[in-house]
Design goal:
Blueprint lengths: L8 H12 L4 H8 L3 H15 L5 E2 L4 E2 L4
Antiparallel strand pairs: 1-2
Helix pairs in contact: 2-3
Length: about 70
């Protein structure tokens, strides 16, 4: 049986800070001991929630939002 652990507020904030500093998803995941998909999902969630203030996530680069 798998157990899932939610990201803490601290981890979410760290993801946003590392992202703003230009770190890759892989680098952020390694820093926080989380899987790359967890980081990617959190950044996509941020993008949807904030309506374009964050960046669109691709597998290797972070691109500015373009409608």
């Amino acid at each position: 049986m798998n157990t899932y652990k939610h990201l803490t507020l601290y981890e979410c904030e760290k993801i946003m800070v590392f992202h703003a500093l230009g770190k890759t998803i892989t680098q952020i995941a390694q820093q926080l001991y989380r899987h790359k998909s967890t980081i990617s999902r959190e950044l996509r969630h941020c993008y949807r929630k904030l309506g374009g203030i964050c960046c669109i996530i691709s597998t290797t680069t972070l691109l500015p939002h373009q409608p």
